[in-house]
Design brief:
It is built from twelve helices and twelve strands. By secondary structure, the chain is of the alpha/beta class. The structure holds nicotinamide-adenine-dinucleotide. Nicotinamide-adenine-dinucleotide (NAD) binds next to helix 6 and strand 7.
Length: about 425
């Protein structure tokens, strides 16, 4: 091994385009990588690869507003790592999106994709825009101009965007159409999360919640918890939390507590999740549901449960409420719901945490299936998709569980070890070009 190829120090990893004293989410990611470095063995000489995004594109997105004026928005696409395959990751529309955030999210996609072993690298995109302030026509123009601008680095074989915060099937359809028009041919595989009629996949909508359920049942089996009658608490009753809750109830568990942005509910004998899903579809939230008792929002975290599923926002379990949580297993449906300080408190209390990079990877896994189906123009049944999803999630859980047991580390650290080793092994085998 050449000594020139030894990894450089962290100080050299700080890019000149971020503020060294406030790296934001990218700084959090760098600390996570440093934490797994001692476990990477010979791969650690490539560690610097993980601390530098491969490619960052910042674009100006000008559009004509409905009132005839021109507005400019800042857009990003970051490809963190493509050693294991094309970049893959969503596009976020939010007025507060920053480059540091998109860089961190792209890196977490590299980790997630490697942790569940789908053949992708990691990427992420974003536009600093509040989509609620745009008309439908303005939203379409922003999407099409952004897609054209990042069109030089995305493609079915290079980098495949998907929905994220404030982006959806319609936005994916506009992205696919714009890329296809520029290419002169329909390229359905350039994005995933598309409408079914444009090459989307059956089962994609439910995939993340289903993945949460699969790893939750695996975790329960490992700690000797019977799902029959197990008490489930869920924060967030949307796409991820609502589906996961319904699947746990169908498997015989009781969903005893639910919280969303409109309030919290409790029912010791178990909430009827189908009735609650119908209520949310009609009213926009769980508040006002008469099939359970209302609960003060703070009390939600004190309810004794067997499995707690945070499936709403980041930073919900903090040092303020972690000490009050009485549960056996936390399955992170949301991205980043647990702060580092809370993680340590819960670990000391013996709570098993299944980290987001494994627990919510069902979405990107079925995105991978969508991409494969688009390439072959042959579409699978929902049963086939669900079976394959279950297999991927179980294998990922088992690989991470084994590394956690062998090294006596948390499932989060183990997931990073598994993922970083896979990425750096690919880097090692490919070698440096030239
Ligand atoms: P969603 O919009 O369908 O649902 C979000 C839920 O969170 C809603 O029930 C909402 O009421 C609730 N919520 C919002 N603010 C809240 C607050 N202050 N307190 C309590 N609840 C609040 O979104 P989703 O697709 O279910 O995503 C949820 C989380 O899962 C996000 O962190 C997302 O990044 C993550 N995730 C989603 C997918 C996916 O495929 N949808 C994949 C991976 C990760």
């Amino acid at each position: 091994m050449s000594s020139q190829l030894q990894s450089t120090t962290s100080a050299q990893s700080i890019p000149s385009y971020l503020h060294a004293d406030d790296l934001g989410p990218w700084g959090n990611y760098l600390r996570q990588v440093d934490r797994v470095a001692p476990y990477l063995g010979s791969s650690s000489r490539w560690l610097e690869t993980l601390k530098r995004p491969k490619r960052i594109l910042i674009v100006d997105v000008p559009i004509e507003l409905d009132n005839g004026t021109v507005a400019h928005f800042e857009g990003y696409r970051v490809q963190h790592n493509v050693s294991r395959g094309p970049g893959k990751g969503g596009v976020r529309y939010h007025q507060d999106v920053t480059l540091s955030e998109v860089m961190a999210l792209s890196a977490w996609m590299s980790v997630k994709n490697a942790a569940v072993n789908v053949p992708y690298g990691g990427a992420k995109g974003g536009i600093r825009v509040d989509p609620r302030k745009l008309s439908r026509g303005e939203l379409e123009r922003v999407t099409r101009r952004y897609t054209s601008e990042i069109g030089i680095i995305i493609g079915p074989n290079t980098d495949i965007p998907a929905p994220d915060v404030n982006t959806n099937e319609q936005i994916m359809a506009w992205m696919m159409d714009t890329y296809s028009m520029n290419q002169g041919q329909t390229a359905t595989g350039v994005v995933t999360g598309k409408p079914i009629s444009l090459g989307g996949s059956l089962g994609r909508r439910e995939a993340t919640g289903r993945g949460v359920f699969v790893v939750g049942t695996e975790a329960a089996r490992r700690v000797g918890l019977d799902i029959q009658g197990a008490r489930i608490a869920v924060q967030g009753f949307g796409n991820v939390g609502g589906i996961a809750a319904r699947l746990f109830e169908e498997a015989g568990a009781k969903v005893i507590a639910v919280q969303d942005h409109t309030g919290s509910l409790y029912k010791a004998s178990g909430i009827d999740t189908n009735a609650l899903l119908a209520h949310v579809a009609n009213t926009g939230g769980v508040g006002g549901f008469t099939g359970a008792d209302p609960l003060a929002n703070d009390e939600f975290w004190t309810i004794e449960s067997d499995i707690l599923i945070p499936a709403a926002l980041e930073n919900q379990i903090t040092e303020k409420n972690a000490g009050k949580i009485k549960t056996k297993i936390i399955v992170e449906g949301a991205n980043g719901p647990t702060t580092t300080a809370a993680d340590d408190i819960l670990h000391d209390k013996g709570v098993l945490i299944i980290p987001d990079v494994v627990a919510n990877a069902g979405g990107v896994t079925v995105s991978y299936f969508e991409w494969v189906q688009d390439f072959s123009s042959f579409f699978w049944t929902e049963d086939e998709i669900n079976q394959r999803l279950e297999r991927v999630m179980r294998e990922a859980f088992n690989a991470v569980w084994q590394v956690a047991s062998e090294n006596k580390v948390s499932m989060r650290t183990a997931a990073f070890i598994v993922a970083c080793k896979r990425i750096l092994m690919a880097r090692e085998m490919r070698g440096l070009y030239p």
